[in-house]
Give the backbone structure.
Amino acid sequence: MARKRVIDLTSATATIGKNQSGSLFTIARAGGMVITLPSAGRGLEYEFVVKTQATGTNTHTINVGGDDDRIRGTLLLAQSDSATGKAFVGDGSTHKKITLGKDYSATGSGRNGSYIKLTCDNDGKWTATGFTTTKTGAGATPFSA
Amino acid sequence: MRRRVIDLTASATLGRNQSGSLVTLNALAGLTVTLPSASRGVYYDFVVKKTVTSNDYIITTATADKIRGTLVNAKNNTASKAFVATSSDTITMNGTTTGGLIGMRMRLICDNDGVWNVSGFNTASGSEATPFS
């Protein structure tokens, strides 16, 4: 049976390598962290799960690595025992960052258990898919320039 | 480890030997993807690279194979709507109500001969409608 390579991220900053494609990254720092992707390259793929949510006004952010790289795709904001999830869509033209705060705020929410997959299907574009979680509130888009 | 990426700019039939690939739908005028005969363990991921401006993106099974599963039609900053297939054989994305906008991503995986399981987010606009038929 195949197993994923798992890489624990616990520092304030982390830069992901192309040679780590296919890995599952755990995000674990209450003080938040800044993760930088490599320059987008065809076929690269990473998965992220939030293991320790950011607290207070801290955030976890995932940034593109290349100046011209962009993020498109859909993240569904999930609230337990809620009738509907709210979708947020990355536009692929201006969005360069995914931000996960805690619950309702000016940023997206990413409590423990949030899961994001980023795949590069063509140079310069990352497609995001996954679920982010919140406990309260209507949520805000995690995508920004 | 990188994913194999297949860019489709015209209608195509996928091969079993392409299982595991990321397939991009990249044709403004739409295209049709025909899956191979369903076979245990074969899977593909699809993403939309260009939203159709005419016609549709269509994913269809080989003869007699069926599709079941769930696609969440997603609109930005809007409560989502799920559509469930139990015995469909075609997914049609028209670039608006039935989805297929940039950002769509779905996986089709065959866990048993004759049936494809689908899951994913199908970015849509307007009054959402099922992509399954």
